[in-house]
Structure to design on (80 residues):
């Protein structure tokens, strides 16, 4: 478990910290910064927060929820 993952697990949902893009990517193995940007563009990635034009934040719970929603039990299942 990384230090970031340990810190996230110690916070209650109502005080959950915002994560930078780089921190969010630590929780999403195999996803590149460019791929995450593309997912934001098409609306297919985890929920994110954009308080300014150049600032993007995520919450770990949103990332985990998005990852869980992609769970499949068969390769024949249609991707959402």
């Amino acid at each position: 478990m990384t230090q970031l993952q340990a810190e996230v697990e110690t916070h209650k949902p109502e005080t959950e910290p915002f994560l930078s893009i780089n921190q969010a990517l630590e929780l999403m193995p195999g996803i590149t910064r460019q791929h995450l940007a593309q997912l934001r563009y098409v609306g297919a990635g985890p929920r994110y927060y954009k308080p300014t034009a150049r600032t993007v934040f995520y919450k770990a719970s949103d990332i985990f929820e998005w990852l869980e929603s992609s769970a499949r039990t068969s390769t024949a299942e249609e991707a959402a």
